[in-house]
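In this section we walk through a basic example: taking a raw amino acid sequence and producing a predicted 3D structure, encoded as discrete structure tokens. The instruction is simple. Fold the sequence below.
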Amino acid sequence: MSALKRVQQWATFARIWHIYDVAWQNPFHSAELLRKYLMGIHKPIYHPMNDCGDHVIVINSADIALPGDEWKKRVYFHHTGYPGGASWTLAWELHKKDPTLVLKKAVYNSMDGNLQRRSTMERLHIFPNADVPTSLLANVSNQIRQLRPKPKRLDTYPDEEVKQFPKIIDLPKDYILR
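The resulting token sequence is shown next.
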């Protein structure tokens, strides 16, 4: 076997570390993307009974964006196992308690039917901001592209660009902004 083929074979079977920035992304669409890397669906050797998935580091999970009024209407169920231990938590409350849980539950639910779901979830490393331990960052060799471009905030545009933007209406001098 040539050295090139040996390296190609090693790369196929190795667990690669990926990094993904989830800021301003829909967690449910991102979960479908992350599932492919965690389960190894993107590899040519994938089989449902084969554990060939990769590690994924997710940063900025505190900045996820749910569509519409999902923050107020989406509910997460939890049961303690004791009688009367059922509880339902709104998405914004769950996100306030732990900014990683909404994305973690979305990825977990996207792998429905996977027999190795619990061990696969151990390869998902979620951080609420960009502070990742250097020991984990040393392993990263690939970056997963965001599904949607991150929108630019108005306060980040330079003043010259704001002044050059075409106006729809000129407000009178005595107009009061509230």
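Looking at the output, two observations stand out. The chain is about 35% helix and 15% strand. The beta strands are 17-21, 55-59, 75-79, 86-90, 124-126, 140-144. In the next section we compare this with other chains.
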